[in-house]
Amino acid sequence: MDVALVGFAGVLVGAVVAIMGSWLIAIRAELNDAIVAARLIEVDLALVQRTEGGSGPSTATWTANSVALPKALGYRQWKAVAEVYRGGHPSAADLNGRLERAHRELKPFAVSKRSAVLQRWRNMLCGNGSAKAS
User: Fold this and answer.
1) Following DSSP, what letter does each residue of the chain receive, concatenated?
2) Domain segments of the chain: what residues?
3) pLDDT in tens, 77-101
């Protein structure tokens, strides 16, 4: 009977390890996709800022990368980036304000993987991205 319990305990421990490993792999894949998307959108935002809003943000860049971002960004971060790509023609001052907020919120994801991992955990623990971006 003792051998059966030890075997059963081993199966349970193995199942927990496998589940945690799969979960961590999925989180890492989502984070890698978000980092790539953040960097590409960051380049697009920098281009818009350099042209002083003349060309407007690229909808192709947004369409290609907007699916990966919300998996890692908190709500506040997502909202700041999405506001830049919202329709309409904002004034130059309003667009510059939106661009600055979007840069600030994307920075942890665009700068380094370490800062992206830390921000991702803050977003998961705080719920809505309300933690101050470092």
Assistant:
1) -HHHHHHHHHHHHHHHHHHHHHHHHHHHHHHHHHHHHHHHHHHHHHHHHHTTTSS---HHHHHHHTTTGGGTS-HHHHHHHHHHHSSS---HHHHHHHHHHHHHHHHHHHH-HHHHHHHHHHHHHHSSS-SPP-
2) 33-126
3) 889 999 888 866 777 778 888 888 9
